[in-house]
Design brief:
Blueprint: H1 7-25, H2 32-39, H3 43-46, H4 53-76, H5 81-91, H6 97-115, H7 117-143, H8 153-173, H9 180-192
Helix pairs in contact: 1-2, 1-4, 4-7, 5-7, 5-9, 6-7, 7-8, 8-9
Length: 197
């Protein structure tokens, strides 16, 4: 009797393997051969699930974004304003091993996105959603009196997101001078600067 293959599970296995190769060896090392080897498959099997390397990379990035979005949705359920914003900002920093791996994956795509419009579009859409969520929560917090009435919310959202990116890169590249506790403190201090006294 032939073995029954769960095609969705096989695709997930390939995407997990691609993410592992990218995080461990870098995005340039994520060849279809390396991804197939990591997944324990033959290179030819990948072509049954993905048309080429670019589709694998795009799908791996989208899958990572989906997992992050699901985790964030769970974390902010029942929270509003500053409390929800705090969770979103901290969750986007590599403050534990899971988020460290996610951030490494994300940052690996940045330079490649400059040369690939498809990847850039995925990045822009995701950041657009995050920017909108941060801005909406800032508006919600201001309406509740939690954020200063004179705060420019467009600038505040941009500042907070730029700080997330900067702290994330510093945590990955310069762990000797920035640790997780300090990164968290700096992020919360930036948010605290917007909060009404």
């Amino acid at each position: 009797m032939p073995k029954i293959v769960d095609h969705d599970e096989r695709r997930r296995d390939v995407l997990t393997a691609a993410s592992k190769v990218i995080v461990r060896d870098g995005i340039d090392a994520a060849t279809t051969r390396a991804i197939a080897k990591e997944a324990g498959l033959s290179n030819g099997v990948l072509s049954h699930y993905f048309s080429d390397k670019e589709e694998i990379l795009l799908s791996a990035l989208r899958a990572s974004h989906r997992r992050i979005r699901e985790r964030l949705t769970s974390k902010v359920t029942g929270l509003t304003g500053v409390a929800a914003l705090r969770e979103i900002l901290l969750d986007n920093l590599p403050l534990d091993d899971e988020r460290n791996q996610e951030t490494r994956l994300e940052v690996s795509f940045w330079s490649r996105s400059l040369a690939s419009e498809d990847l850039a579009e995925v990045q822009r859409a995701e950041v657009g959603e995050l920017r909108e969520a941060v801005h909406d929560l800032l508006e919600q917090a201001r309406a509740a009196g939690e954020v200063r009435a004179d705060a420019d919310l467009d600038d505040a959202a941009e500042h907070l997101l730029a700080l997330v990116d900067g702290l994330s890169v510093h945590l990955l590249l310069y762990p000797g001078w920035l640790d997780r506790a300090r990164a968290e403190r700096l992020m919360l201090a930036a948010l605290e600067g917007l909060v009404t006294r």
